[in-house]
């Protein structure tokens, strides 16, 4: 098959996405597919060859490694020669239209939030993962938690805050600590703060202004970080993440090799494993997702799992969790990518 792997984009998670894209492209090529890897935002503006020649081009080495910090998006915008407001770089949609399918290696806004999926749907281009509606719901942490709470799924207490700089002092006095502050529609733990003091709260809310002043403030639940993947509507074994530094599985712990210990299957009893898997599958179906996802949980000291959020395009980098879960049941990385591709084409045919 001719496959376009879309990566990068204009998202704080673009570097993670580029690393995922390189891995996916090379895995699919190893299975005999012709693959063109392209940055959603920059497109083909620096490509001197024909679109067809991109299918044989090696992956840029600089894309493989995820930096310690998220990129400066203002600097990314400034680097693009084409000064259009379009999130699709030059030639991207034309390249996708000439392929048999698009593998979405995108993460974060404009990639995981349903907008790219909707554009491809309108053009009749099949792509991997969930459809536009489920993607949009899952990216909205407030809406996802509302659906889960109504369905009886345990999730920490939360509220959505929409505020301006002048509101921060009053919020700093009113909100009950400890809590977690996180952007309403971002991933990779970018912009996430665990807050124990009023000073930390002020810092977290100030940082939240950079995400549009729309954040989730959530009850802090101390415990073990465990995540569960779903592949082809069936759960994979759970994986426990133990950061070696810091209080939680933040951006650096996620993507720097050796920064966290990851244990799969997670060392939990059969009853808890069954509950985690049942809940992950329930959320996957409740939000209307297809093919694959990964749900994040905290398991408290009493052994109770609390659902935090669900990811519709889980990371596929060298340190990512879903590939480790798949490997635990004998699914190697190239096979995982091809199964995602095949199952997604079936989902598109079925209108999901």
UniProtKB/TrEMBL annotation:
<keyword id="KW-0963">Cytoplasm</keyword>
<dbReference type="InterPro" id="IPR011095">
    <property type="entry name" value="Dala_Dala_lig_C"/>
</dbReference>
<comment type="pathway">
    <text>Cell wall biogenesis; peptidoglycan biosynthesis.</text>
</comment>
<keyword id="KW-0133">Cell shape</keyword>
<comment type="function">
    <text>Cell wall formation.</text>
</comment>
<dbReference type="GO" id="GO:0046872">
    <property type="term" value="F:metal ion binding"/>
</dbReference>
<dbReference type="Pfam" id="PF07478">
    <property type="entry name" value="Dala_Dala_lig_C"/>
</dbReference>
<dbReference type="GO" id="GO:0008360">
    <property type="term" value="P:regulation of cell shape"/>
</dbReference>
<keyword id="KW-0067">ATP-binding</keyword>
<keyword id="KW-0547">Nucleotide-binding</keyword>
<dbReference type="GO" id="GO:0008716">
    <property type="term" value="F:D-alanine-D-alanine ligase activity"/>
</dbReference>
<feature type="active site">
    <location>
        <position position="13"/>
    </location>
</feature>
<dbReference type="GO" id="GO:0009252">
    <property type="term" value="P:peptidoglycan biosynthetic process"/>
</dbReference>
<feature type="domain" description="ATP-grasp">
    <location>
        <begin position="145"/>
        <end position="342"/>
    </location>
</feature>
<keyword id="KW-0464">Manganese</keyword>
<keyword id="KW-0436">Ligase</keyword>
<keyword id="KW-0460">Magnesium</keyword>
<dbReference type="InterPro" id="IPR013815">
    <property type="entry name" value="ATP_grasp_subdomain_1"/>
</dbReference>
<feature type="binding site">
    <location>
        <position position="311"/>
    </location>
    <ligand>
        <name>Mg(2+) 2</name>
    </ligand>
</feature>
<dbReference type="InterPro" id="IPR005905">
    <property type="entry name" value="D_ala_D_ala"/>
</dbReference>
<dbReference type="Pfam" id="PF01820">
    <property type="entry name" value="Dala_Dala_lig_N"/>
</dbReference>
<keyword id="KW-0479">Metal-binding</keyword>
<feature type="binding site">
    <location>
        <position position="309"/>
    </location>
    <ligand>
        <name>Mg(2+) 2</name>
    </ligand>
</feature>
<protein>
    <recommendedName>
        <fullName>D-alanine--D-alanine ligase</fullName>
        <ecNumber>6.3.2.4</ecNumber>
    </recommendedName>
</protein>
<dbReference type="InterPro" id="IPR011127">
    <property type="entry name" value="Dala_Dala_lig_N"/>
</dbReference>
<comment type="similarity">
    <text>Belongs to the D-alanine--D-alanine ligase family.</text>
</comment>
<dbReference type="InterPro" id="IPR016185">
    <property type="entry name" value="PreATP-grasp_dom_sf"/>
</dbReference>
<keyword id="KW-0573">Peptidoglycan synthesis</keyword>
<dbReference type="GO" id="GO:0005524">
    <property type="term" value="F:ATP binding"/>
</dbReference>
<feature type="active site">
    <location>
        <position position="188"/>
    </location>
</feature>
<dbReference type="GO" id="GO:0005829">
    <property type="term" value="C:cytosol"/>
</dbReference>
<dbReference type="InterPro" id="IPR011761">
    <property type="entry name" value="ATP-grasp"/>
</dbReference>
<dbReference type="GO" id="GO:0071555">
    <property type="term" value="P:cell wall organization"/>
</dbReference>
<feature type="binding site">
    <location>
        <position position="296"/>
    </location>
    <ligand>
        <name>Mg(2+) 1</name>
    </ligand>
</feature>
<dbReference type="InterPro" id="IPR000291">
    <property type="entry name" value="D-Ala_lig_Van_CS"/>
</dbReference>
<feature type="binding site">
    <location>
        <position position="309"/>
    </location>
    <ligand>
        <name>Mg(2+) 1</name>
    </ligand>
</feature>
<feature type="active site">
    <location>
        <position position="320"/>
    </location>
</feature>
<keyword id="KW-0961">Cell wall biogenesis/degradation</keyword>
């Amino acid at each position: 098959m001719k496959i376009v792997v879309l990566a990068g984009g204009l998202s704080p998670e673009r570097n993670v996405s580029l690393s995922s894209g390189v891995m996916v492209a090379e895995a699919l090529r190893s299975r005999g597919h012709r693959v063109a890897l392209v940055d959603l935002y920059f497109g083909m503006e620096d490509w001197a060859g024909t679109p067809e020649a991109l299918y044989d081009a090696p992956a840029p080495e600089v894309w493989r490694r995820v930096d310690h910090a998220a990129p400066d998006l203002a600097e990314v915008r400034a680097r693009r020669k084409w000064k259009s407001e379009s999130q699709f770089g030059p030639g991207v949609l034309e390249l996708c239209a000439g392929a048999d399918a698009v593998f979405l290696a995108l993460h974060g806004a404009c990639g995981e939030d349903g907008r790219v999926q909707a554009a491809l749907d309108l053009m009749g281009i099949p792509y991997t993962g969930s459809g536009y509606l489920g993607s949009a719901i899952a990216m909205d942490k407030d809406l996802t938690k509302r659906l889960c709470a109504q369905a009886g799924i345990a999730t920490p207490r939360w509220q959505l805050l929409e505020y301006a700089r002048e509101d921060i002092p009053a919020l700093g006095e009113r909100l009950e600590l400890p809590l977690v502050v996180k952007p309403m529609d971002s991933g990779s733990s970018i912009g996430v703060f665990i807050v124990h003091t009023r000073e930390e709260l002020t810092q977290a809310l100030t940082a939240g202004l950079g995400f549009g002043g729309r954040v989730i403030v959530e009850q802090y639940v101390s415990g073990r970080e465990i995540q569960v993947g779903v592949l082809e509507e069936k759960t994979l074994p759970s994986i426990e993440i133990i950061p070696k530094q810091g209080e939680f599985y933040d951006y650096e712990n996620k993507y720097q090799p050796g920064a966290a210990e990851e244990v799969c299957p997670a060392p939990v009893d059969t009853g808890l494993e069954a509950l985690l898997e049942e809940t992950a599958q329930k959320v996957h179906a409740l939000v209307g997702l297809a093919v694959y996802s990964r749900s994040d949980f905290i398991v408290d000291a009493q052994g109770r799992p609390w659902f935090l959020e669900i990811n519709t395009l889980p990371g596929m980098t060298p340190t990512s969790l879903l590939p480790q879960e798949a490997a635990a049941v004998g699914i190697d990385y190239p096979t995982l990518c091809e199964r995602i591709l095949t199952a997604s084409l079936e989902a598109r045919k079925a209108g999901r």
